[in-house]
Amino acid sequence: MASNNALASSYNNNIRPLLDAVDRLRNLKVTEEGIQLPTIVVVGDQSSGKSSVLESLAGISLPRGQGICTRVPLIMRLQGDSNTTKPSMHLEYGGKIVPTSEDEITAAINTATVEIAGAGKGISGKPITLVVKKKSVPDLTLVDLPGITHVPVEGQPSDIYEQISKIIKEYIAPQESIILNVLSATVEFPTCESIRMSRQVDRLGERTLAVVTKSDKAPEGLLEKVTVDDVRIGLGYVCVRNRIGDETYKQARVEEERLFTSHPLLLRIDKSMIGIPVLADRLTQIQVSIIAKCLPDIVKKINEKLNRSMSELNSMPQNLSTIADALKAVIRIIKLVRESLEKLLIRG
Ligand SMILES: Nc1nc2c(ncn2[C@@H]2O[C@H](COP(=O)(O)OP(=O)(O)OP(=O)(O)O)[C@@H](O)[C@H]2O)c(=O)[nH]1
Asked: Which of 84, 166, 187, 295 has the largest CB neighbor count within 10 A?
């Protein structure tokens, strides 16, 4: 027990501030300034089960269904808080903060999606951020992207494939992104469009982790698929069984465990490759290691930007003093961010 407490307090003192710093930088939209942040990006073919995986990790309902559901990037920030008795959650989009609840979350995301991408089936690259603070969630930030489809469904623009590909590539191309490739056990992995796309930016699969959904629907041959690895997934596979129908999240985890421990074909898959809790642990470890790897470079890039802005500012004519004052204020903010990052680096 004592060592668990020590682990928890070391986590709160060392890891939490790192995650918070990265989330704050994301809020400051530093990516628009060409500074890439360590991000876990969820990709998959349409209806592969991306939203269901996020639901399972967060223990909340998200818009789910057959056909296109996710029409804008959804940045999901999960924050585990052992002191919270009641979960709290809100959406951030278009400069607004909208408090919501577990019962209303699906409707709130749908409303935000319509506001951003229209009422039809069109898509948009502007993200919605969903912040979830809950007792038993892993500390993770993940970005869910629209599912890839070649054939537009009724009401979708004819260039839907090009539009979705563009958004996905933007998110998965940076070396700082980890690709969580969601593959349905019901399909042959080499035929997945999401595999083709992630291989374009990560040829050897070094920053790709696969999560295989619908293990319950296609257990035959699953062990072979995840051990032969003919699509090159460098960070490995985790097979899961998501919530089905009206099951609660607790029931879904019980059913998942029962499936993998009782099905004659599935119980042969190694324990380190099955279940949502294993996936949550893997993602948390990966997230910490990419943040630690990327942080020195982020600080360096912020420093370079700062120095450039300072010299531009110093060379400005006197009569532009109002603009100069505004810029100075911006630089003060960047300095504060830099200082807090540097403190973290020294501590880490
Ligand atoms: N039986 C079973 N069904 C699943 C599983 N995971 C997802 N599903 C179902 O598959 C369908 C598609 O799941 P979604 O999570 O909406 O898929 P998605 O990839 O987010 O869909 P888009 O965003 O529209 O591309 C839903 O009906 C889910 O209930 C699973 O592990 N087992």
From this structure: 295
